[in-house]
Design goal:
protein transport
Length: about 850
């Protein structure tokens, strides 16, 4: 009757038979309707509806027939179709659509099983039987018939099912591992092995420290070929792999024999049995028994006296083993012997007798000869055996080391001695050793080598620091290694200036120290040799920074004169050098000097020169010069701050000059009053200062008004002549330098006084000042233009000369401005100024 069923009813009937576990009827149905009940469909029906508790032996044959496509004879067998006979076709189709058949493939399916539906079914069925029914022992019956069908099935059986069966079902059924087969496969290797061996006892107590366990294991196990896979499979390895595993096992067994810590007869027997087992496994000549080997040995009693065979002698011998027997480190013979013995341990003295393909068999055979030679060289240099090291590694005809390798080792050892030094003096301690190491190999390390130059510069720089008190951290003295590893070695100079008062005056020495740091490569962190241009730029930047540090230190100690000298002489740009774009120290130091204000603690100048004797005016003029230098060397983005400071200083200078002019007027008024008092005195008082000029009393009445007028004219002439008032400071400087002009004006005043100038108010005023003006040099210099302007009140020729001298001063000021900072503020060139005048 099954031949008359529709496809939908056939599928429903197959599902019904699978649910009931009627595998025989299902096989008959599959044999008759193979075109409808395809292999993949039947496998999915079995996977979804076949009970997991059904023994594997009842359906394995059907799965094999399904895979082969050949079924047994089913001609006389009938299939019960009553479960689907009364169903309508539409209802049967709806039920088929509602079937939820499981997919054969798992998400983590191996790649080699991607196209094999039978392997997919077997793997999925094995996991499902273990998870749903917990029947792990049913899996071998399911998978063993298909062991050779796919490597995936073989790996599952050998690596997971077999260990779990032995652990949970054979060895420790009372304490199984709480993991399903699929979850156990996902565990890391170490975790899985730990779970399998969790019931084997205390691992730390038994195996590592008990040599008897190792001896018994070697005696009972024949190595990799003795692996028990339950008779299901073999290792499947080739002969080379098997031989390699056997060799590794033999080495491990011999190593365990060497590690036996006891000196008893039982331990000797155990070690001997391990050796015999290894010889048997490797196919070597059979080893006789321990008793036979001992019988061949001559008795010790016949060779050694009885007095030696005592416990006291054994104690003495053990004590001798604890006494070091090394020669003196200052004996070259000891070092030569030690070197020869170390090299002998590498190749048993074969030396160059080994062929290029042969491998030495000594204790140090795995260590390269160059490595041993390098370590010996380092030991010789560390113990100051320089002549011996030179004779072996430099003067010998056959040098043990390559020249480049020898150079690198010498440099590394020298720097190691430098790093271990505690005294920055190069004539002592580690620095002396570093210097001696470099000089010990003149043929290998030449003074012209770049690395040798850098080390020499490093030694000189470190030695320079020994002249100063220096503590970088509280309670920790300065050590040379700090300089070499410091991220900013120039900042150490700032620490020197902080801890050593007045050390900023040693600018030349500090600049030399900075140059040595640059030459030693401390200021650049790039590896490799730097170019000459880079070194020149680094030197200029370092020089500016050190100068700036000294300027700030001088200002901190209120030594403005020294700071001013450094700004003018060291930071001013020159035609041959330019400031590096990244130099941010020079202009800031000049700006700080320009902002400095004189206080009671400020150190006085040691000499005045041609500068103003007025301390305030002189200080302001020096500040303006510092700010002008800052303008020249500062980047354009910072000019606004400097110009603001420049204007404030210029305003203060103008106020100081006005105050000085008022004091001059007061001084002149006092002189006039004294002279007027002297005119009405009698002849007895003619000796009073100022009485000699009594003949000019008639002209003194109009002097004060004329003098004030001349002062106002002088103030107008001294007004700023440039856009940023910078030229005025230059004009004042030029006036001080043109001392001949003031002398000429005073000579003209005396000439008018002696040559009938008494009728002129201006001449009388000049004559009165010649005897009374005992004023500071700045007052005389600043009043020179006023005296010259008032010498000829009605003479047009004198006025023309005064204007011409003023023009000369202005032209000089404008020339200085254009050559200096005029380009910064946009001042026109002197030619345009002349045409404008």
């Amino acid at each position: 009757m099954s031949l008359l069923l529709s496809p939908a009813k056939l599928v429903l009937l197959a599902v019904h038979l699978a649910v009931n576990g009627d595998v025989a009827s299902l096989a008959t149905l599959a044999a008759r309707h193979s075109t409808i009940l395809r292999k993949d469909l039947l496998l999915r029906i079995l996977l979804t509806y076949l009970p997991e508790t059904l023994p594997s032996t009842q359906y394995v044959n059907f799965v094999q027939q399904l895979e082969q496509g050949v079924f047994s004879d089913t001609a006389g067998q009938e299939v019960d179709c009553s479960s689907v006979a009364n169903l309508e076709e539409d209802e049967a189709a709806r039920k088929v659509k509602k079937l939820r058949l499981l997919p054969l493939a798992l998400p983590d399916l191996p790649v080699e099983a991607a196209e094999d539906v039978l392997t997919q079914f077997l793997l999925h069925r094995a996991y499902k039987v273990d998870e749903e029914a917990g029947l792990l022992d049913e899996l071998p019956a399911l998978l063993l018939p298909f062991l050779e069908h796919s490597p995936c099935i073989r790996n599952l059986l050998v690596s997971a099912i077999l260990p779990l069966l032995r652990r949970n079902c054979e060895y420790y059924p009372h304490d199984p591992i709480p993991y399903t087969l699929h979850a156990f496969q996902q565990l890391p290797d170490r975790v899985a092995v730990s779970l399998l061996l969790s019931q084997t006892g205390k691992w730390d107590a038994d195996l590592p420290s008990n040599w008897k366990v190792a001896v018994h294991a070697v005696q009972q196990w024949d190595g990799p070929t003795d692996v028990d896979l339950g008779g299901w499979s073999s290792l499947g390895l080739g002969d080379p792999q098997i031989d390699q595993l056997r060799q590794s096992y033999a080495r491990a067994a011999l190593a365990s024999a060497y590690l036996i810590p006891e000196a008893s007869l039982e331990a000797l027997e155990g070690a001997y049995s391990v050796v015999a087992k290894v010889a048997n496994l490797r196919g070597l000549e059979p080893v006789s028994t321990l008793a036979s080997a001992l019988a061949v040995l001559p008795p010790l009693a016949e060779q050694i006296p009885d007095e030696i065979m005592t416990a006291k002698t054994a104690t003495y011998m053990r004590n001798d083993l604890l006494i070091p027997n090394n020669g003196p480190k200052t004996d070259d013979k000891f070092w030569v012997k030690a070197r020869n013995e170390i090299l002998w341990l590498r190749d048993w003295g074969a030396g160059d007798g080994w062929s290029t393909d042969a491998v030495p068999r000594g204790v140090f055979s795995q260590v390269k000869r160059d490595f041993l030679e390098l370590e010996i060289l380092k030991a010789l240099l560390s113990n100051t055996r320089y002549p011996l090291a030179r004779s072996i590694y430099e003067d010998a005809p056959d040098r043990p080391l390559d020249k480049k390798l020898l150079q690198d080792t010498i440099y590394a050892t020298a720097l190691a001695a430098y790093d271990n030094a505690s005294n920055p003096n190069r004539t002592r301690g580690g620095l002396k050793k570093c210097d001696d190491i470099i000089k010990a190999f003149p043929k290998t390390v030449r003074a012209s080598d770049s690395q040798a130059k850098r080390i020499e510069a490093l030694l000189q720089a470190t030695h320079s620091l020994s002249d100063h008190r220096l503590v970088l951290k509280q309670g920790e003295p300065f050590t040379p290694v700090v300089l070499r590893v410091h991220s900013d070695p120039i900042s150490i100079i700032a620490k020197i200036l902080e801890q050593n008062p007045k050390s900023y005056t040693q600018l030349h020495d500090l600049l030399r120290l900075g140059a040595l740091m640059v030459e030693a490569g401390l200021t650049t962190r790039e590896k490799g040799h730097i170019t000459a241009e880079q070194e020149t730029s680094e030197r200029a930047s370092t020089e500016h920074r050190i100068t700036a540090i000294c300027i700030n230190a001088a200002l901190a100690e209120d030594d403005f004169e020294t700071a001013y000298s450094y700004v003018v002489n060291r930071l001013s740009p020159r035609s041959s050098t330019t400031v590096a774009p990244r130099d941010d120290f020079a202009w800031r130091a000049a700006l700080q000097a320009g902002k400095y204000r004189r206080t009671a603690r400020t150190l006085p100048p040691t000499h005045l020169g041609t500068a103003s004797a007025n301390a305030d005016v002189r200080h302001l003029e020096q500040r303006i010069e510092c700010l002008a230098t800052a303008l020249r060397i500062a980047p354009p983005a910072t000019l606004h701050e400097i110009v603001n400071a420049f204007r404030r200083a210029e305003e203060e200078l103008e106020a100081a000059l006005r105050e000085e002019a008022l004091r001059e007027d007061e001084w002149d008024a006092r002189g006039d009053a004294i002279r007027a008092t002297g005119i009405g005195a009698s002849a007895k008082t003619a000796t009073v200062p100022g009485a000699a000029f009594a003949t000019a009393a008639a002209t003194t009445q109009a002097a004060p008004p004329q003098r004030h007028q001349r002062q106002r004219d002088a103030d107008e002439d001294a007004a700023p002549m440039s856009l940023f008032d910078l030229s005025r400071a230059t004009v004042l400087s030029a006036q001080r330098n043109l001392s001949a002009l003031s002398g000429l004006q005073r000579s003209a005043g005396f000439g008018r006084l002696g040559g009938g100038g008494r009728s002129s108010g201006g001449g009388g005023d000049a004559g009165g000042r010649s005897s009374l003006d005992q004023r500071p040099l700045s007052a005389a210099g600043s009043a020179a233009s006023a005296g010259s302007g008032g010498g000829g009140g009605g003479d047009g020729e004198d006025t023309t000369k005064r204007v011409r001298k003023r023009d000369q001063l202005r032209e000089a000021a404008m020339g200085t401005l254009v050559s200096g900072v005029g380009w910064l503020v946009g001042a026109p060139p002197p030619s345009s100024m002349q045409s404008r005048e």
